[in-house]
User: What shape does this take?
Amino acid sequence: MPQRIAIAPGVFLWREKFSPLEQKKLHDEVMARLEQAPLYRPVMPNTGKEFSVEESNFGTLGWVSDKSGYRYQPAHPVTGMPWPAIPQPLLDLWAEINGGRAPECCLVNVYRAGAKMGLHQDRDEKDTSAAVIGVSLGDEALFRIGGTSRAGRTVSVSLASGDVIAFGGTARLAYHGIDRIRPGTSRLLPGGGRLSLTLRRVSKATGGA
Ligand code: SIN
Ligand code: FE2
Assistant: This one.
Protein backbone atom coordinates (compact mmCIF):
# COMPACT_ATOMS: atom_id res chain seq x y z
CA MET A 1 0.00 0.00 0.00
CA PRO A 2 1.34 3.46 -0.84
CA GLN A 3 2.33 5.61 2.11
CA ARG A 4 0.56 8.85 2.87
CA ILE A 5 2.93 11.79 2.33
CA ALA A 6 2.31 15.08 4.16
CA ILE A 7 2.69 18.02 1.76
CA ALA A 8 1.49 20.80 4.08
CA PRO A 9 -0.84 20.97 7.09
CA GLY A 10 -4.05 19.19 6.00
CA VAL A 11 -2.66 18.29 2.55
CA PHE A 12 -1.76 14.67 1.83
CA LEU A 13 -0.50 12.77 -1.20
CA TRP A 14 -0.50 9.07 -2.08
CA ARG A 15 1.82 8.15 -4.96
CA GLU A 16 0.33 5.61 -7.40
CA LYS A 17 -2.60 4.85 -5.11
CA PHE A 18 -4.13 3.32 -8.22
CA SER A 19 -1.89 0.72 -9.88
CA PRO A 20 -1.39 0.88 -13.66
CA LEU A 21 -4.07 -1.80 -14.12
CA GLU A 22 -6.50 0.03 -11.81
CA GLN A 23 -5.77 3.29 -13.67
CA LYS A 24 -6.68 1.66 -16.98
CA LYS A 25 -9.90 0.21 -15.56
CA LEU A 26 -10.88 3.51 -13.96
CA HIS A 27 -10.07 5.42 -17.15
CA ASP A 28 -12.24 3.05 -19.19
CA GLU A 29 -15.09 3.29 -16.68
CA VAL A 30 -14.92 7.09 -16.71
CA MET A 31 -14.90 7.21 -20.52
CA ALA A 32 -17.94 4.91 -20.67
CA ARG A 33 -19.86 7.18 -18.27
CA LEU A 34 -18.85 10.28 -20.23
CA GLU A 35 -20.88 8.90 -23.14
CA GLN A 36 -23.96 9.63 -20.99
CA ALA A 37 -22.60 12.96 -19.73
CA PRO A 38 -20.36 14.36 -22.49
CA LEU A 39 -17.45 16.66 -21.77
CA TYR A 40 -18.24 20.28 -22.49
CA ARG A 41 -16.29 23.50 -22.18
CA PRO A 42 -17.57 25.75 -19.38
CA VAL A 43 -17.23 29.52 -19.45
CA MET A 44 -16.28 31.96 -16.70
CA PRO A 45 -18.96 33.93 -14.88
CA ASN A 46 -19.41 37.46 -16.17
CA THR A 47 -16.67 37.46 -18.83
CA GLY A 48 -17.89 34.33 -20.63
CA LYS A 49 -14.26 33.38 -21.28
CA GLU A 50 -13.86 29.68 -22.03
CA PHE A 51 -12.10 27.37 -19.58
CA SER A 52 -8.98 25.70 -21.00
CA VAL A 53 -10.20 22.38 -19.54
CA GLU A 54 -13.25 20.39 -20.60
CA GLU A 55 -15.54 19.18 -17.82
CA SER A 56 -18.35 16.88 -16.81
CA ASN A 57 -19.54 15.40 -13.51
CA PHE A 58 -20.68 12.21 -11.84
CA GLY A 59 -22.86 12.02 -8.73
CA THR A 60 -26.09 13.56 -7.50
CA LEU A 61 -24.78 17.12 -7.86
CA GLY A 62 -22.45 18.43 -10.53
CA TRP A 63 -20.40 21.62 -10.38
CA VAL A 64 -20.98 23.97 -13.31
CA SER A 65 -19.87 27.43 -14.34
CA ASP A 66 -21.59 29.72 -16.81
CA LYS A 67 -22.11 33.42 -17.35
CA SER A 68 -24.43 33.65 -14.34
CA GLY A 69 -22.00 32.04 -11.89
CA TYR A 70 -20.72 28.87 -10.25
CA ARG A 71 -23.21 26.40 -8.81
CA TYR A 72 -24.13 22.77 -8.19
CA GLN A 73 -26.99 21.23 -10.13
CA PRO A 74 -28.46 17.72 -10.56
CA ALA A 75 -28.48 17.75 -14.37
CA HIS A 76 -25.99 18.17 -17.23
CA PRO A 77 -26.24 21.74 -18.58
CA VAL A 78 -26.19 20.64 -22.23
CA THR A 79 -28.18 17.38 -22.25
CA GLY A 80 -30.45 18.11 -19.24
CA MET A 81 -29.90 14.52 -18.08
CA PRO A 82 -28.98 13.52 -14.50
CA TRP A 83 -25.24 12.97 -14.01
CA PRO A 84 -24.08 9.32 -14.07
CA ALA A 85 -23.25 7.64 -10.75
CA ILE A 86 -19.76 7.99 -9.25
CA PRO A 87 -17.62 4.92 -10.14
CA GLN A 88 -17.27 2.45 -7.25
CA PRO A 89 -13.44 2.63 -6.98
CA LEU A 90 -13.80 6.36 -6.24
CA LEU A 91 -16.47 5.75 -3.59
CA ASP A 92 -14.16 3.16 -2.02
CA LEU A 93 -11.28 5.65 -2.04
CA TRP A 94 -13.48 8.28 -0.37
CA ALA A 95 -14.60 5.79 2.30
CA GLU A 96 -11.00 4.87 3.04
CA ILE A 97 -9.78 8.46 3.36
CA ASN A 98 -12.80 10.40 4.62
CA GLY A 99 -15.30 7.80 5.86
CA GLY A 100 -18.67 9.30 6.71
CA ARG A 101 -21.20 10.34 4.13
CA ALA A 102 -20.46 9.53 0.51
CA PRO A 103 -19.36 12.30 -1.90
CA GLU A 104 -22.13 13.96 -3.90
CA CYS A 105 -19.90 15.31 -6.66
CA CYS A 106 -17.13 13.93 -8.80
CA LEU A 107 -15.94 16.74 -11.06
CA VAL A 108 -14.23 15.46 -14.19
CA ASN A 109 -11.58 17.73 -15.74
CA VAL A 110 -9.77 16.92 -18.97
CA TYR A 111 -6.54 18.77 -19.67
CA ARG A 112 -5.23 18.58 -23.20
CA ALA A 113 -1.86 20.18 -24.09
CA GLY A 114 -1.76 23.77 -22.82
CA ALA A 115 -4.72 23.49 -20.44
CA LYS A 116 -4.36 24.72 -16.85
CA MET A 117 -6.43 25.76 -13.85
CA GLY A 118 -5.81 29.10 -12.13
CA LEU A 119 -5.45 29.35 -8.35
CA HIS A 120 -8.88 29.12 -6.74
CA GLN A 121 -10.70 27.93 -3.63
CA ASP A 122 -13.32 25.15 -3.65
CA ARG A 123 -15.94 27.08 -1.74
CA ASP A 124 -19.28 26.51 -3.44
CA GLU A 125 -20.01 23.67 -0.98
CA LYS A 126 -22.22 24.13 2.09
CA ASP A 127 -20.42 21.31 3.89
CA THR A 128 -16.66 21.73 4.09
CA SER A 129 -16.08 19.23 6.89
CA ALA A 130 -14.76 16.46 4.60
CA ALA A 131 -11.52 16.71 2.63
CA VAL A 132 -11.56 17.29 -1.12
CA ILE A 133 -9.99 14.26 -2.81
CA GLY A 134 -8.40 14.39 -6.27
CA VAL A 135 -7.36 11.46 -8.46
CA SER A 136 -4.96 12.08 -11.37
CA LEU A 137 -4.88 9.94 -14.54
CA GLY A 138 -2.68 10.40 -17.59
CA ASP A 139 -0.06 13.09 -18.09
CA GLU A 140 1.75 14.62 -15.12
CA ALA A 141 0.56 17.95 -13.78
CA LEU A 142 2.21 20.61 -11.68
CA PHE A 143 -0.22 21.15 -8.78
CA ARG A 144 0.16 24.16 -6.51
CA ILE A 145 -1.48 24.68 -3.14
CA GLY A 146 -1.22 27.49 -0.59
CA GLY A 147 -3.21 28.84 2.30
CA THR A 148 -6.61 30.43 2.60
CA SER A 149 -5.49 33.80 1.27
CA ARG A 150 -4.59 34.18 -2.39
CA ALA A 151 -1.38 36.04 -1.59
CA GLY A 152 0.05 33.36 0.72
CA ARG A 153 3.04 31.10 0.16
CA THR A 154 2.37 28.04 -2.01
CA VAL A 155 3.99 24.63 -2.43
CA SER A 156 4.14 22.75 -5.72
CA VAL A 157 3.95 19.03 -6.27
CA SER A 158 3.98 17.00 -9.45
CA LEU A 159 0.93 14.72 -9.75
CA ALA A 160 1.39 11.61 -11.89
CA SER A 161 -1.08 9.02 -13.11
CA GLY A 162 -2.60 7.08 -10.21
CA ASP A 163 -1.64 9.68 -7.60
CA VAL A 164 -4.22 10.89 -5.08
CA ILE A 165 -4.20 14.25 -3.31
CA ALA A 166 -6.46 15.25 -0.41
CA PHE A 167 -6.89 18.61 1.29
CA GLY A 168 -9.08 19.00 4.33
CA GLY A 169 -9.25 20.43 7.84
CA THR A 170 -7.39 23.75 7.93
CA ALA A 171 -6.52 23.25 4.22
CA ARG A 172 -10.08 22.59 3.03
CA LEU A 173 -10.39 26.14 1.70
CA ALA A 174 -6.77 26.42 0.55
CA TYR A 175 -6.06 28.10 -2.78
CA HIS A 176 -4.91 25.55 -5.34
CA GLY A 177 -4.53 25.13 -9.09
CA ILE A 178 -2.77 23.36 -11.93
CA ASP A 179 0.07 25.45 -13.39
CA ARG A 180 0.64 23.17 -16.36
CA ILE A 181 0.63 19.62 -17.56
CA ARG A 182 3.61 17.79 -19.02
CA PRO A 183 2.45 16.42 -22.37
CA GLY A 184 3.77 13.03 -23.37
CA THR A 185 4.48 11.77 -19.83
CA SER A 186 1.75 9.09 -19.94
CA ARG A 187 0.14 6.93 -22.57
CA LEU A 188 -3.03 6.24 -20.59
CA LEU A 189 -5.28 8.70 -22.45
CA PRO A 190 -5.63 8.11 -26.19
CA GLY A 191 -4.26 11.26 -27.82
CA GLY A 192 -2.53 12.27 -24.57
CA GLY A 193 -3.61 14.59 -21.81
CA ARG A 194 -4.67 14.42 -18.19
CA LEU A 195 -7.94 13.46 -16.53
CA SER A 196 -8.63 14.56 -12.96
CA LEU A 197 -11.46 13.32 -10.78
CA THR A 198 -12.30 15.58 -7.84
CA LEU A 199 -14.58 14.21 -5.11
CA ARG A 200 -16.51 16.51 -2.80
CA ARG A 201 -19.31 16.62 -0.28
CA VAL A 202 -21.64 19.49 -1.19
CA SER A 203 -24.65 19.77 1.10
CA LYS A 204 -25.12 19.62 4.85
CA ALA A 205 -26.60 16.51 6.40
CA THR A 206 -30.38 16.72 6.73
CA GLY A 207 -30.76 13.75 9.05
CA GLY A 208 -30.69 11.04 6.39
CA ALA A 209 -27.78 10.12 4.13
C1 SIN B 1 -9.60 21.53 -9.44
O1 SIN B 1 -9.06 22.06 -8.50
O2 SIN B 1 -10.77 21.80 -9.76
C2 SIN B 1 -8.89 20.49 -10.29
C3 SIN B 1 -7.54 20.11 -9.79
C4 SIN B 1 -6.95 19.03 -10.64
O3 SIN B 1 -7.21 18.96 -11.84
O4 SIN B 1 -6.18 18.21 -10.11
FE1 FE2 C 1 -10.41 23.03 -7.11
